[in-house]
Design brief:
repeat; CBS_dom_sf; about 20% strand; CBS_dom; three-stranded mixed sheet; single chain; about 140 residues; CBS-domain; alpha+beta; CBS domain containing protein
Length: about 140
């Protein structure tokens, strides 16, 4: 466990993160998710502050059941209470957030990573964490 505490989020996160504006359309965002082969998009304001998150599953499911129109925007559908992790926090801190803030049955699969000014600087996924742990073994 001590070795996990020594791993810092910024050292294992993905820094080249795709994000979306709250004013983007859901179809545009869904296309960006598929094109970039990512499972979520942090939603950022004009100051690059994380204000929400959308997932492929959420958007795709609702597009299939015709819940959205062409006018539906990300701000209409995003999860607003987004859990983030600071780039200077430890891997253990990220793991705890993924577990504690899940819906009880599942964990959060990815967390937007922010700096001390709450600006989006990356994303950390369960895959990033598994790779980091596997290097310790």
């Amino acid at each position: 466990m001590n070795k996990l505490k020594e791993i810092i989020v910024k050292d294992i996160m993905t820094g080249d993160v795709f994000s979306v504006s709250p004013d983007a359309g859901v179809v545009e965002a869904f296309e960006a998710l598929l094109k970039n082969k990512v499972s979520c998009l942090p939603v950022v304001n004009e100051k690059n502050e994380t204000i929400g998150i959308v997932t492929t599953t959420d958007i795709g499911y609702n597009l299939i059941i015709d819940e959205y129109t062409l006018e539906t925007t990300i701000k209409d559908v995003m999860t607003k209470n987004v859990v983030t992790v600071n780039s200077e926090e430890s891997l253990v801190d990220a793991l705890k957030k993924m577990d504690l803030f899940g819906n009880g049955k599942e964990i959060i699969n990815q967390l937007p990573v922010v700096n001390n000014e709450n600006k989006l600087v990356g994303i950390i996924s369960d895959g990033d964490i598994i790779r980091a742990i596997s290097k310790l073994c």
